[in-house]
Structures are given as C-alpha cells and as structure tokens.
Specification:
By secondary structure, the chain is α+β, with helices and mostly antiparallel strands. It contains 2 helices and 9 strands; from the N terminus they run H-E-E-E-E-E-E-E-E-E-H. The protein has one domain. The strands form 2 sheets. Strands 1-3-4-5-6 form a 5-stranded antiparallel beta sheet, with helices on one face. About 3% of the residues have low confidence.
C-alpha cells in the first residue's frame, strides 16, 4: 500500500517569517507616505489660512480708509506730505474712531474701537527681507499737511510666528500683503 505524504499542507516557519517581514516593510512604507501626506496638507492649510487672514485684514483696512472722514496721524508740518506710522486712526461717518495698530513687541496687529481691543493678525514682524530693519505698516500721503489723499498698507508676515490652523509645526513661508486706498471724498473730488 502506498502512504500519502502529509507534508505540504501548511507554511513553514521560514515562509511565515518572510511574509511577516514583507508585510512590515510595506506597512512602514505606507506609514511614511501617510506622514508625508499629512505634513504637506498641514503646511498647505496653514499657508492658505494665513494668506486669507492677511488679505482680509488689508481689504478691511482699505474699506475703512475709503469710508473714513478724518485720519490720524497727520504730518508734523504743513509742508510734509508723507507719514509712515505704526498705527492708523480713522474717523467713521458716525463720528466714532477706529484704530489699527502694529505692536512690535508681540508682532501683532490690533483693532481698537469704542474702548475695546481685538487681535487682528499675529506674526506681523514688518521685516520684508532678512537683515533689513522693520518698515512701518502704514504709509499715508497728505495734501496741504492735513487731508489724506492716499494710504498704503504694507504688512510683512513671518511664517514662523503665524498661528495658522493649529495643526502643529511650522514651515509657512514669509508673506507680504500690500494694498492702497483713497478716501471717497478724494475720489469724488477728482
């Protein structure tokens, strides 16, 4: 009588170990790809969040300038035409005042109105390039030493100081937001 061979029904220990090693290597590669993918997503989300915030602040400041009826600071003398400042105060048509100011100690831009103060934007260091002194965020042009004819908002945001989406880590590039506006009374007069 012939006897049947009972070997060959299962995997040997060496085959199981090889399969486990291949599975572990594949899992490590997949995990590395997921970590890289999440890091790219985080950087993109933080950058977009900071970019949108910066643009909104510049656009809102332009609206204030367009609708404002009086502005501070004014030039020191009647022959001075340009004022570079860390703050801008705008009197609104309802006679209330709004102040936007840059605080170099906290690298932040603040909004003040009616005795209240709110944080507008963080990471504003006003350093356009490495090794350059900080620049003023507001450049105001006046005629006759008193009447604002145009204003430029120039915000330099340090990507390392931006809070972003709070997904953790850094890696946001420095950004610069520039916008100009003229008061409506000047636009209508011309």
């Amino acid at each position: 009588m012939l006897m049947r061979n009972r070997q060959g029904r299962g995997f040997t220990t060496i085959e199981v170990l090889i399969a486990l090693a291949i599975s572990a290597a594949l899992m490590a590669a997949v995990l590395g790809a997921l970590v890289t993918s999440f890091e790219g997503y985080r950087r993109t989300a933080d950058s977009v969040s900071a970019s949108v915030s910066g643009r909104l602040v510049v656009e809102r400041t332009q609206v204030l300038i367009r609708s404002g009826i009086d502005f501070l600071p004014v030039p020191a003398g009647p022959t001075d035409a340009v004022v570079e400042s860390d703050f801008l105060e705008v009197q609104m048509p309802d006679e209330s005042w709004v102040k936007i100011s840059w605080d170099s100690a906290t690298s932040s831009l603040r909004w003040e109105e009616g005795g209240n103060s709110w944080l507008l934007l963080e990471g504003i260091d006003q350093i356009p390039e490495v090794g350059v002194d900080p620049i003023a965020p507001f450049r105001l042009r006046f005629s006759d030493g008193r009447w604002l004819t145009s204003a430029t908002i120039d915000l330099c945001m340090n990507g390392d100081d931006v809070s972003g989406t709070d997904l953790g880590g850094g890696g946001i590039e420095d950004m610069r937001f520039v916008g100009s506006a003229i008061p409506r009374r000047v636009a209508w007069a011309e």
